[in-house]
Amino acid sequence: GSIRLPAAACGVVGLKPTLTRVSRHGAMAMCYSLEHVGPLTPTVRDCARVLGIIAGHDPGDSFSSREPVSDYEACLDADLRGMRLGVP
Fold this sequence. Notes:
By secondary structure, the protein is mainly α. The chain has helices spanning 4-10, 44-54, 72-75, and strands at residues 13-14, 40-41.
């Protein structure tokens, strides 16, 4: 991975977003399903802020999502008590 692994090696936060959440317009295409554009930032809050800016539909990338962009930064302050997480 060119987002998560370099982030781990450098001690920063990297986020690989859902495939169509961030436009790949302008990126050199090698393999559609393997290409992701995502933030590398010093903190989780910065990562949420940058994702909120770069996420969303781009007319230059017909595959980019048309779904509304969440306020990712606001989600950081959510109460997680009672939430159940599962990993397949």
